[in-house]
Amino acid sequence: MSENGAGVAAVRRALAEGGFRGELLGAGDEGYDGARSIWNAMVDKRPGLIARAADRDDVVAVVNAARECGTPLAVRAGGHGIIGSAIADEDGVTLDLTLMRGVEVDVETKIVHVQGGCKLGDVDAATAEHGLAVPAGIVSDTGVPGLALGGGIGWLSRKHGLTCDNFVSLEVVTADGEVLEVHEGSHPDLFWALRGGGGNFGVVTRFSFQGYDFGPTMRFGAALYHEEEARAALREYAAIYPSLPNVVGWHVAMKRAMPGLPFVPDELVGTPMVMLFCMWLDDPESQEGVEMVERLLAVGDPAVTGSAVIPFGLGMQRFLDAEFPDGLRNYTKEAHLKELSEGAIDALVDFWAEGLGAGTTIEGELAIYGLGGVAREVGEMESAFSNRDSLWWINWANHWHDAVDDDTNMDIIRASYKRLEPWVGKGVYVNMLNVDELDRVVEAYGGPEKYARLGLVKAKYDPTNLFRMNHNIKPTAAAETA
Ligand SMILES: Cc1cc2nc3c(=O)[nH]c(=O)nc-3n(C[C@H](O)[C@H](O)[C@H](O)COP(=O)(O)OP(=O)(O)OC[C@H]3O[C@@H](n4cnc5c(N)ncnc54)[C@H](O)[C@@H]3O)c2cc1C
Q1: CA angle, corner 377, sides to 373 and 380, nearest 5?
Q2: Using a 6 Å CB cutoff, which residues line ligand 1?
């Protein structure tokens, strides 16, 4: 047995002998292949061991065993991280939290307690029952932990901030196996770092979030444009967006093949369309909301418009699920835009119309997420999450089916990013940072000064960098920052 294999075997033995209550899966065990698969089929790793924790004590046992045996450790929740850091290599152990998916809602305080392996859909289902919502992302299969620890943007960000802005407290298993309750008044340095610093500081076994009265329904409107009308509509969008109140969300999805959503006539299904969609994030029946949605649907010359009051947690939050299935070859990119100028609009529309067009196998969409609002009001040094200024975040959410197309398609997407560069602002969202952008990790964490501060927190709670399979923050000695 190799030295590495010996480490993994020692971890397995220690867990089995120590009364591990979850599941231990190695190559050849039933369920191993399913357990090593994640959303992005480009990631095809074979961890030495997958330890599926049943509870917090199991998590502590895995952390202790990996540390003591010197074995690389990856942490997995929803498995939606693009780079596949949730899955260890052959010499390592994946600590898998997918059995830990309980959610408890305290209806009095509106605080929502979420176990460390939950998906967004688990939280939405539990909160919708009480007319509450926790601000999070837009695809229900995404894991809460990776999303929340890296920031967490979604439909409610303009009204209630990022997911990490709504942490009340967290239960964290640190690298030495200690269980800490972390909040503003307890380990405030760690609390600050967990709000955007990713999985660098420990394993979160429970998140407690501030929930809000929301729904159960929301007012939604969508307008679809053909290519010839798209540029003009986007120019109007760019002019109006900065003046909107925080209770309005307005976003763009440039789709190569329009899905058959309820308001889409049959003849437009499968055709390339630019969709502008707006949300009234307040009382869905208010006259103000009706008028706002009407005003935004009147932009440009749409081929079709539709509006409705729809369920939020169990409707809007699942609206896009079918477009982001598991098992495709996914390549994504993100850019914070400093201005949505005419040149930027042309660059985006050209890529959508040509790069995503006939002759390539690239599928998916180019999205513009309208941000700002409450998410922008938190100061740069108030949380680890960085670069909140940009009003628009561009997301190339692209995929294809065949590995032979990987290089060509990635080159096309990279070229389209390059064309947009003159309008790209500072920073990049750490949760969207891809494998070919690892030179941007310091920038994603806010630049050298903030990265150094995060490094000090890392040195205090994880001095040997046990939690390094992520967008890594290296432990910094105090002298290095002096
Ligand atoms: C289809 C899709 C839709 C998305 N939509 C959004 C969106 O709307 N908004 C948004 O902000 N982002 C979105 N993202 C990006 C998303 O935030 C990241 O991919 C995130 O990493 C997913 O979290 P996960 O738990 O599923 O990841 P995993 O791949 O399971 O884990 C990623 C990393 O998170 C860390 N981690 C996981 N669990 C824990 C834990 N319990 N404790 C400590 N660290 C842990 C580990 O470092 C791990 O390597 C989306 C991604 C996809 C693929």
Answers
A1: 135
A2: 39, 75-82, 85-86, 97, 116, 137-139, 142-143, 145-147, 149-154, 198-199, 203-204, 324, 431, 469-470
